[in-house]
Amino acid sequence: MSLLVSLTHETSYEYDKAVSLSPHVIRLRPAPHSRTKIISYSLQVEPAKQFLNWQQDPFGNYQARLVFPEKTNRLRILVDLIVEIQVFNPFDFFLEPDAEEAPFIYSDSLRRELMPYLSASDGSYALANYISQLRKDGILQKARTVDYLVRLNHRVYEDISYVIRMEPGVQTCTETLEKKSGSCRDSAFLLVQILRHIGLAARFVSGYLIQLKPDEVPIDGPAGPTEDFTDLHAWAEVYLPGAGWVGLDPTSGLLTGEGHIPLAAVPEPSSASPVFGYSDPANAKFHFHMAVKRIKESPRVTKPYTEERWEKILKLGKKIDDKLRKNDIRLSIGGEPTFVSDTDRQNPQWNTDALGTEKLSLAEELLANLRKRFAPGSVVQVTQGKWYPGEPLPRWSLNAFWRRDGDKLWQEEAYLSSAKEKKDADRDDELTKAETIGEQICVSLGLSNKHMIPLFEDGFYYLWKEGQLPKWEKPESPKDDDFSFESLERRRVLSVLEKDFKLKKGFAIPLQYNYILKRWESSEWTYRRERLYLVPGDSPAGLRLPFASIADSFRLSAVLTDVAEPSKLPSYKELSKKVKERSQKEGKFYPNGKELPIRSTLVIEPRLGVLHIFLPPIERLDIWLDLLTSIEDACLRTKLPIVFEGYEPPHDNRLSLFRITPDPGVIEVNLHPSSDFEELAEKTRILYEEAKAIKLSAEKFQIGGRHSGTGGGNHITVGAMTPADSPFLRRPDLLRSLVSYWQHHPSLSYLFSGLFVGPTSQAPRLDEGRDEALYEFELAAKQVDERKKDLPPWLIDRLFRNLLVDLTGNTHRAEISIDKLYPPAGPRLGLVELRAFEMPPHYRMSVVQQLLVLSLLGRLWEKPYKKSPVHWGTELHDRFLLPHYVWNDFKDVLRDLKDHGYPFEDDDFLPFFEFRFPVYGTLKKDDIFLELRLALEPWNVLGEESSSFGTSRSVDSAVERLQVRVEGWTNERFQLACNGVEVPLRPTGKPGEAVAGIRFKAWNLPFTLHPNLPVQNPLVFDIWDSWSNRPVAGCRYYVSHPGGRAYETFPVNSFEAESRRISRFFPDGHSGGLKESPRKVEKSHPYTLDLRWVDKNI
């Protein structure tokens, strides 16, 4: 992200009479060592009649010397400059080995050169005392140089309060220390003197400070300026061998950044005054004005749209909503947004692992916050989620259920507890509470408490199991966040052995609803052993009931279902009344008779200091509501809070839910669907706000600074609020149109996707990796076109199910997944899932992304898309992996939507383009402009490798791809070379513009294709002039830090990520001494140069 900012600085003196002016020296031009790029600079001085000479002082600073030959009654100085604000890392510097720890000693030759900056001009007693105190406090204790300087700079910032002081000159160190306050120049002078006294060369710097209002207010730390701001400022610079001059700003306690623009860097403040000169004695009015203005902002994820544009998008969304409603599409849209931790990016649970203690804690907090916003009166249930091969246990799932009719499921929020552990819980007290609430649940259900069965752990088994484990010196060694089989097994055994086997584990109540007699029933259980021992394990007791030791077969329940439209659910008030009437009657006991025992069981288990209620499977929603109300009635009488777990309620359109589940590296939020755009936009905003409030982020950064989504995707699910209303079932040609349209426009696959694309990704296109798929799809589409609406739902599934799959036949891992549409053996929900969408970093981008999907479906509903598939061939992974062609194709999509009444602007999707394809660097040479941009590279999944951990397949991410774009290009004169090889530039249709892709080996991984090929780093681009037969300009791109710095941690924010990216590009450095024109490589694709085919590499 780069910003062009203009700075205007005006100073004027109005005299009450004409005066003579002495020669003036003006130091208001950015110094040569400024790290912030100066685009343009202007200095205007009145009176206009003057003699101007630009000079450099002994320290290399620019200064203007003006002579005024005539008297004047006005002196006006106007500075106007334009700068490019691009974030850089102030800590990104090299240190000589002798200077890695401070304080250090300069070499003799360097000391002589730095002599003016080592001589302390203030030797006051107050300063000596202050330095002595710094030593006592350990501030000047030997440490890493960076830590040493940061510590000292921050101490001065803490001790000296900032004040605006209009008096000229600089306070002495004594004055500043006694007052404990000063202006920026006073603090800077104090820090310079301290540094010199401890043997470090330092200089005083005056300059401009530009501070821009942040796009987003941080959760922690200072919020920054509320408006864009600029002022004259002063700071210190210290000389570090290897790094050079490093800026320290004691006014803020920080190192200097891109907003610090030096004007004069000198040994003493007297040589840094912005304006120096005299006039005849006269009365003068002084006027001073400074302003900063943004003149060009590139689209960025922290502020993707201006407020004006966002209002227009919201209005467009309402218009599209009205159009969809008018066409009776009955469309709903939901999604699966994902989030990662914003504070612990290194942790495996936020990179590769599915489970983690922090992940569960944050998910519980997010669920609680979202319940307040989305579903007051809802009920939370912790259930088991997905279980993948290789994982020791199923993953957890946090679910919030509520009634769609607006009535409450649960009245008393105080009795819904959190599942967080309470370490000080007393086990006997826990069991007493469990037994008490179990008895009251029996009362509410109209049952005798004799049906409560105590549950016990099998102590003999665990004693045997403990003997099978290897001896560990420290029993507490297994870590809570270690989810390996060995650690889980050891924790499981230790947790059980710590408890008394004689104590109960919980209580079970066999429970089943009799739909004919309309009552709850229970039964007695008989078992061979004296007690009922649970199956060994550490899952909830409700999942470990020993049914095999109770009976060979169990009673079946006759479920009465209504084939007609579901009736209205009983209200909470009606349910409460029914339960209270039932609880006033004597509980019924159901002794063993001819009937078989009941299998479904409600279990009360005190665990981790909290009462958990394990719900049995219930076939009908109204009966599930009855059970829930009965449990709440028991809670009201006992005043005991609980946590629900067990089986989820039956799927019913009268019940809404959202859930939070873990996925590798992310938290996934399965949002309830939205039926209109306004609801969608508000819901998305709330989700992002609540996630940010608990320090969850929607973005990640690669080690080299590459910006990406969370990696978990943002899958979009479309259908209807009820399966019967699904537009894909009512109009079978809609799915056929959707697949065809997506196949015709590769930009829909690649503009919004994540890092991993291609045949082996998690969302491969229909035409990626399966050559026969298009042929078979065309035949299936022909049948849909012929049958039109006369197509049963099951046949839609059969026609497309085996085509919309990945290479292994997985129906879920496809770009357009229909495994929830109408599968014969699965959930027939009428849903289609679009999986090639990465998580947008900003909620407004997510809203626009979803609005695009709604518009596409609206357009395809109005006019079916019955075109034959396009056989892209090699163009798909050659042409359409380059940003230019992706954007051109997407603009075709937008034009088509506009023609059908869905008028998006191209600029609405520029934030996605800049996020997906960031600029790595630009070069300007005369009329030629060159731009390097990230392109896409489909990484291969390699063959199986056996290791001590099992069999795995690695993703080969060794190859990367860039796009180079040129403007002002003359083919007859210039050639572009990359590492001495001609780049196959192709004209774009715009005069003088051409693009090409560069594919190269960036990394040497342990498992990779062609391990013998060397890494191609750096990439040297030369603009070859055939008229002069030599390169006239060039640039260099490095895969990693050019100074050899190996980053050990991921960037903490987008600023550090950007600084890492820009540090790898240099807008100079063409190949010197070249005498031969670039050579050609015949193996290149039409649009891409593959440097791996260069002869010297093979």
Automatic annotation (TrEMBL):
<dbReference type="InterPro" id="IPR013589">
    <property type="entry name" value="Bac_transglu_N"/>
</dbReference>
<feature type="domain" description="Transglutaminase-like">
    <location>
        <begin position="176"/>
        <end position="252"/>
    </location>
</feature>
<dbReference type="GO" id="GO:0016874">
    <property type="term" value="F:ligase activity"/>
</dbReference>
<dbReference type="Pfam" id="PF09899">
    <property type="entry name" value="DUF2126"/>
</dbReference>
<dbReference type="Pfam" id="PF01841">
    <property type="entry name" value="Transglut_core"/>
</dbReference>
<dbReference type="InterPro" id="IPR038765">
    <property type="entry name" value="Papain-like_cys_pep_sf"/>
</dbReference>
<protein>
    <submittedName>
        <fullName>Amidoligase</fullName>
    </submittedName>
</protein>
<dbReference type="InterPro" id="IPR002931">
    <property type="entry name" value="Transglutaminase-like"/>
</dbReference>
<dbReference type="InterPro" id="IPR018667">
    <property type="entry name" value="DUF2126"/>
</dbReference>
<dbReference type="Pfam" id="PF08379">
    <property type="entry name" value="Bact_transglu_N"/>
</dbReference>
